[in-house]
Amino acid sequence: MHDRAITSEYGFQLDLLSCERLMRDGSKSFFSASRILPSNIRDSAIALYAFCRLLDDMVDDQNASYNVIEQIEYRLDRIYSKNPLDIPADRALALVVERFLIPRNLLEALVEGFKWDRTGRQYQTIEELCDYAARVASTVGVMMTLIMGKRDRAVLERACELGLAMQLTNIARDVGEDARNQRLYLPRAWLEEENIDPDQWLKNPIFNDGILRVNQRLIKYADDLYKRSAYGFSGLPRNCRSAIAAASLIYSEIGRQIERQGMDSITRRAVVSKKRKVLLLLKSLGAAIYSAKLTQKLDAIPAIQFLVSAVEPEAQYAHYSGSVEDRLIWVVSLLEKVEHRKIDSYQAFARH
After folding, report:
1. How many domains does the chain have?
2. Cβ-proximal residues to 140 (8 Å cutoff; 6+ apart), any chain
3. pTM (2 decimals)?
């Protein structure tokens, strides 16, 4: 048991290096915010995001096999049978789902969102778009919350809302890129209200006043969700609040950048500068000291309720079970990682 636990933890660290490289190159906003998570949570979060990123890349690949969704489902089968494929992200996620009792329903909902992408599904209303965003983004928010050790329904709902907000921001940013790939995520009803025929516009995606107003409306909707989600920060562990606040601030800043560009995300792609990210990271540190608490009851958002209901509130975490020896090995390993992370952080700071 002793050797197995050490080997498992050592293997996780090797796999994590591969996951970190993937996230550093492919998800800069997340990677920036994750740097201020506590070490053990950051490691598990990176494993989760890396796996989701790999799946996203598989689905987006124009040359992907016709049965790519079946391939993903097979990988989930292996992960939940504790026999993952020989892929670093899969091995790392297998340990994460076991430690934090992440329900398979959450990852299956994510895969369902990928299926919708593969079929080129479009959305008539903002509510239907939120159904999609719940699957591809709120699922990750719920899993992140479980990794942080929280299963309270209200906190999970706020995490789901942050996922919705981030995905809607992504959609607002990528209107032009998506359209050139023959994908449309803007609500068709909103386009029609601006006298834009969605199918005709997709053939020749140009920026005009109607698109300006639709994008403005989408960003406003996302901003309202960012405000709602902020009430959940106080329910998170104090040492995690700043990182989640940072992710929220950095993503919402994409909306501000789109506004600075006159709402044109057809000919330009909004990017948050490194300098601006640093300022937002500093601003987020205040969330560890003060986070607004919810004083009124919020109307439930239907799109996310099935995700919240998938979580058993009182489930016992797997990494707290097992022998005393196992738990001591796990704790010592975490302390060693914290110390190594501090050294790495100081060295990185000195280089810059």
Report:
1. 2
2. 48, 49, 52, 110, 163
3. 0.82
Least confident piece of the model among 62-71, 182-191, 301-310: 62-71
Burial class (CB in 10 A: 0-12, 13-18, 19+), 107: buried
Q: Is residue 90 within 8 Å of 101, Cβ to Cβ?
A: no
Beta carbons of 111 and 69 less than 8 angstroms apart: yes
DSSP per position, 263-322: T--SS------HHHHHHHHHHHGGGGT--PPP-SPPPP-GGGHHHHHTS-TTPPPGGG-S
Residues 178-206 have pLDDT tens digits of 999 999 999 999 999 999 999 999 999 99
Across 220-241, average pLDDT: 94
Instruction: Identify the CA nearest to 228 among candidates 176, 182, 164.
Output: 164
292: left (phi over 0), alpha (psi -120 to 50) or beta: beta
Q: List CB contacts of 336: < 8 A, sequence separation 6 or more.
A: none
Q: Which whole number is the average pLDDT over 258-278? A: 93
Q: Do 247 and 349 lie in a common domain?
A: no
Instruction: List CB contacts of 160: < 8 A, sequence separation 6 or more.
Output: 134, 138, 141, 142, 301, 304, 307, 308
| Segments forming the whole domain that contains residue 239 | 121-304
Q: Are 184 and 279 in a shared domain?
A: yes
